[in-house]
# Entry
Amino acid sequence: MALRGAGGRRGSGALAELLAGRAKRRRCAPERGPGLRDAAVRLLSCHQNLSDLFLEVENSNKSTEQSSTEPPGVVSEPFVVSALQEQASRLGVPLGILSAKTAVANVEQISQASLESGQTVLLNGEQRKKLSSLLETIKDLSMCSAFCRSLFCQEMWKMQSPPVLEVVWHLHRGNTVNLGELLESNSDTPAVVEWLCSSLCLLCELAEDSSQETELCRHMLSDFVITFLQNGFQQTADQGKKLELKKSPQICFAVLQRMLTWVLDAIAKEKQEDTTKLQGVKCWLNIFNVTMYRSTVCPDALHQFFIHTLTEVLTYNPLLKVSDAIHMQREWSFARTTPLLTTLYRKLFVAFSAEELLSHLQQVLETHEVNWQHVLSCVSTLVICQVKAEQLVKDLLSRLLTKAFENYDMENIITAFLIVRQAALEGPAVFMPYAEWFKASFGNSSGYHGNSKKALVFLFEFLSELVPFEAPQYLKVHIMHPPFVPAKYRSFLSEYIALAKTRLADLKVSIEDMGLYEDLSTKEIVQPQCQALQDVEKAIQIFENTGKIPTSVMEASIFRRPYYISRFIPALLKPRVLPEIPDSCMALIDSLKRANKIPPNVYSRYIQDCQAMKKKLVQDGSIEMETDHLKEPLEQLKAELAELRTLVTDQSKYSAVRAQIAVISERLSAVLGCGEDENQAASLNSRVQVNVPDPRIEAPYQNVVDLLLTSFCQNLIAASYFNPPDRQGHCPSLFVKMICGHRDLLPALLTRLCQLIYYQGPSLNEAHVLGLAAFVVHLWECKSFVPEVDVGSLAPQPASARGLSVTEFCDRLLACRTGESLAFCLRFCTAAVSYCLCKFSSLPHGDLCSFLPPGLLKKLQYVVPRLNLEARGPGREEEEVELSWRFLSCPSVSYTKASLCLWKQTHFQELLKEKVFQLSFREWLLFELEIQPETDVLSASERQDFHYWALYEWYLPASSASGGCDGDLEEACGILIDAFLDFCQRSELDSCGPLKKSAFSTHSSTANPDILSKLQEMVLELEDRKAVSAGRLQGREHFLFRVFQARLAGIGNGSAVDQQLRRQQELLLQKRILLGLPPPILITTCRRGKRVTLDCEGFFHFVNSELRNVCSRGCALSYDIAAHFFRGLLSASLDCEESTQGVNDVLAACRTKCPLLLCSAGRWWPRLEPVLCCQWTRLSGARFPQEMQRLKECRCSATSFLSSEAAFSLPDAPWISAAFLHFAIQQQVAHEGRSEVLRRLGSSAEQLLVSLLFFSLLDVISTRLAPQGKALLSFSLTQEEVDAREALEWCLEILRHLEEQGMSWLVLFQAVDRGHGPYHVLRRAASDQYIRLLPLAFFSLIPSFHQELFVREPSFLAVVVDSYIQLLRLFVDGGNAPGSDQEAQSVHAANPVDSLEPITKARRFLLHSIPRCPRKSFTNVHQFLDLCEEFDPEMTAALLHYSKPAADLEYHDGPDLF
# Structure
């Protein structure tokens, strides 16, 4: 409190002294207290200042608290309250109002100094001290209910100037007045928002100024933002708070929104803004630290705030067009985006998972106008900062493109392209290159655009619209890796490429100078010469890793020949001094020369230039003599290898072996001419290339490899004289690991092993065998250091084929086909396994198993019992003989004896019980099938004994867990069949390729015939067992067909050409097995009660589902399988009580269940009849079965009809008679005389003639599938050539005859008759391929169609439309396209001219005929309109137009075609 008087104001302690003195006097005279107090109050009341009183009361309170204790019941309220009460009473106003107004006056007084100095945010030290006292006073007043908070808030906004921000913060932080209450009491919301935002901006700028009170500013900022979030993003559950505060949520939300706009404006104008403002923006970005809001803001509200912020950023000021984004997006990459924006993104990303971010991004793109710069820079930041972003972005692109092509929506497709290009700008380490994405998305028929023509048009319209705005690198991608386009739509692609090339020409960019490995993610233009040098370096690098000429180089030599010849080849053949040991560049040049990709004259000039350069440099003294330079390292290597030999023979020097091997490695590097860095740079995932058919090694490499292998073998033999392998230390293992560490030597090393083991194995002596066996064991030990091996093949290998591990590679080199190879395999495997068991004998059983190569043990299990009779019986413990290592290392070792000793060892037999080492029955069969009997070491009888032992004594009784058959003979037969088919399917040495030119390789597709004989024996035994079993289930499918169907199901039934060919090859092999078994196998005998019947359901199903689709001329099986069935039927009928009835029942069932067999009988009857008659006479002697007789009569009737004037009779069903007549005509009647045949047939047999037309149509289709006399892939041994012209003319003659006789033939093509009617059986007798091509044959008959057909046959128009749609669908689907070869039944391989010709002809005929059709013809057409609309809208329009009533047509001159 302050006192007024002559002396002015007293010090701040005056009131305290006075009160203290009064207190002392009161203690001396308590009875005088009330009087003195009243007197003091009156005195003070006359001279008091309430504002100063508010600021001083804190000290007075503290002083009085320090004074002695008042008596009980005395002084219960602060003095300021008493003063305010008296003043309020005198003024006649409520106490709360007076205290509130007085407090506001103090606030204004405190703030005045800051406002006058222009500081609207912070207070100085004195002001804070006064404000602290004021807040304490207000707190005391509030405790005494002497302060009105609401009036205080209202009065605060009535001050001349808004309060200083720090004052508001202290009021809020001290809980004097909540910020929400303060905001709620203001009536001018925009003004409050403006004041808060300007103050916050200034606060942010001050916070980044180190000279100011940074910590205070950041605390203030944090508290304000938390309050804004709590109020501005309230949850729906806070209903009470929402009712209480109506304005503050809006104000808080508006402030956050304005501040975000301030940030985004500054980012947009970053180059024009001053540093202070940018520093303030940087400070405001700290509010997006998620950790700042822990336990203060509801997680849902925080999530809502971040979502809102991200949305606002992405949609801020959306003025840029898509064309701007296409042109400028390179400038919006992560590295080029302003750090303020990327910082904002990164802080926002912390609040979300990557999935949430991508989902929200898609939602914003679909529902808002966006700022493309912010969206794309967001994508860049996302793929850089989020680990999982790449796959999620790909998923987003997939969703966008799927929607785009479903709805033909330009917005979605442009969004997808912008996003993928932006992501690709960040480099391949972050996202796949744009070129790869474009190829993966549109480069094949399964792309997004491959569903329809409309989708294809949509894609090219989009790409064409982009061209004016495209950067050159994207146009190059679209040209070099164009979208997949069916052949008939190639014009769309041609138009786009022409447009893109024009744009590149305008940009002065040549497509011909584009590099093979040009980085399309960079915009900088690289000079063609520099780009060619880069391409050469990249090609050499790829060649080093793969050993193959890069695909891009091969493609360039064909499709980009100008660049290849003028740029790439000169850069590759730049003259230099050639190294003595060819480097990767020389190897690539040599490979290109062998592939005829370098002109001979260019190569010769290159060699001459290189020699001239070397000569010039030698003359100038620039290089040393090359011979000395090369010989010295090799001699040093030899010396170090010799030193190693002295160490391995002396056990006391084993400790020096490791250091010596390191020296050898250094010398080896010097010889090879490559440093350690190059070895480390080699890709660990690259494969080693070994060309097994032609294993050649450059002389320098072969010398080095031979030196190393010789040293290894000599060291092993020398050390073995003194110690067994387990006491020779780690030298062999370290030596092999050292070699494997020189990766550039691995191709030569493995190629040399191929030469020694595969080609020269039988001629190797015992020391070589022992050394190489030990080397392979340690190579297996070091398998993790050796990459996969790609084995050269004369046959093309799929790019995705798995390479061989080094152990698999060595295992494949050990062929077991001839007597010599079996003996070598025995020697090698015995040596390897014995060495391994001795070398690692101290290891536990489990660890030992990991060091043993499984392939060698399996071969040993196969070879030892085969070559040694003693190994086939169960061994006895007393016969066990220890196999000493000294015995094996002896030069005159007997490997037959050694292998038997090893076989009888208990330890070895225990190893064979391990699952990984067990030789299964299937594996044994694959080994045995490769044996060529003529070169086998076993005689025929010995081989038969071995087979009997292996099948019946070894594998048949063995459990399935040990690789056997559990005593199940049927299971054994199934495994044998499966192994045989696999053997025939695979190439020589499996993935090693066919080594047909090798003298050592005797593998052929001919399997060991003894195994097939054993299969026959087992199947007959199985059939005998089943014959005596009375409980045979009726209709059970034969196990053979179950095995066949299971394998075919594994291959699949797709439309791919390679899959179809593999399926047909599999069927050919399965047929081969069936023909190798007794014919009755095809027929199953079933016992129904006491009666035995024949069941052919299994074979029928196999014919209908498989063989039908590869039959001869579409309607006949090959002769061999047809004869096999009929012979089997006659033989199996003997099991029936009435064999004749058994045959009749089966053939009668064929009419409905397998008509193809009867058609086949018609095709081959001249050859079948004598065979079947002879067999029946031999077996039965009874009368020929009635059904057989009917088939015979069909042929006789057809033959007699064609050779004489006798009338044609129908001894059987019309379609069967037609089949016999059709094939008889083909075989007996010349083309010129066939018209007479039709005349003689007359009109008495309509079904016969229609069926004859059907079979003739199949001939027409056959000529289209196999033009120029090329036979279809079928099982027929011979195939009659059918002339295309004659076949078509014959069909036309039959059709004209049917028309003349008034007979209906449309039923062959009507959809309603495909499952019913008298002719549906014909479709079941033809292959699916031919049935699909019936529309092609139908429109081949156009010359015979006349206008009367449309009048006489109301359904004719419907048949024509249906056939036209099927023809279009056939072409669009690409399967069996008209005019395509059987080997390339796809739209890619089909000749476009030949393919479009029948479609064009059919379309022209249909459009010409529609206007002339009567109205009733359109009755059945409506069901095809939807499909027609999909393929040919113009045709649909024509059909709809002319199907209208005649009155409607008067208003139209013609159809309204689009």
